Amino acid sequence: MPRKNRVTLEAISQELNLSTSSVSRALRNDPLIHPQTRAAVNAMAMRMGYQGRSRRGPQPVVRQRVLGVVFASSSLTDVKRHAITMSYLQGMTSEAAAMNVSLNIQSPEERHSAAPGERMLEVRNPVDAWLVCGIHETKRILALGNITPIVSLVHNYPGLDHDLVSTDDFSGIFQIVSRLVELGHRRCVYVTLSRDREYIRMRAGGFLEGVRSCGLNLAEQVVVQDAFSGWELEDPRPILSAIRAGATAVVTDSDHAAYQLHEILAREGIRVPHDVSLTGFNAIGEPGKKTMHFTSYDPNFVEMGRAAVRTAKWRLENPSAAMLKVIVRGRVVEGESLGPVPERPLASCATAGRKKPPGNSA
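Structure (tokenized):
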């Protein structure tokens, strides 16, 4: 009988205008091949029915792994508007295509069985492992972890064995402090969220180690931990006092904090970066609002999404191995909020932006 025509590497390479060797390496998931190229090659191979080089006839069909992805947003509409989430998704979808796994994207849904306002994770379809983005109630994640493996991005859930993918929070702030010192800054304010999170503590540790390693006087640095109530910067007085006392740089642990502080400084007549330098963290600015381009630490959220998919598949293949903590390296991105130490220190900030009552000069 005539032999059925087989799809070859050459045929795939012609469709994508790639070399045969590049197609072969992409199908072997070679990390030196760009993830988008790997995704395109795998998608084309599946579309054309490529069966590999084996000549033993049809190969057994291997069930495709399914990874559930859950976000902290209340709806997928919110997810699509969130810059960090979209970066995670970009990396996840690219790596999932390259590794031949599928994603089942879900979000917490309001359930009648829940207390008012409480979100519960509603599992609509079975998955092999969960990729958890954002911060959820620990008991909900514990319930999921009792059934399937979990890979969490950024947040560590106590009491649950799970793999963790995170950025180098410690090094991120450390690098920012080092850059400030290069520009001549010797007195800094560090502003941190008042949340008790491991990654927040790591960033604070990076600030203190940066101060120590760069030879700054620790007594001249100011750490403000309780300026925030939730996500709102309600008490800027300690920060303003430190600036008026001679601090020339403010380091925050999020772009959100930097944005709010920038607005307050502007109202007080304190210019960034002419009077004081200001840095953020996450390199996303304040989504939906016009602001300056902050000097910030880019955690590489796209690569974190890819790493989460790789870690989940590895966990499914090695279920009894020790839990992994995968650190993705980022980089400092310099923006317009960073500058050298002012030639003249801030002199009269105490009254900047304030008007004296009329008719009373006494």
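The longest helix spans residues 83-99. The mean pLDDT is 82.
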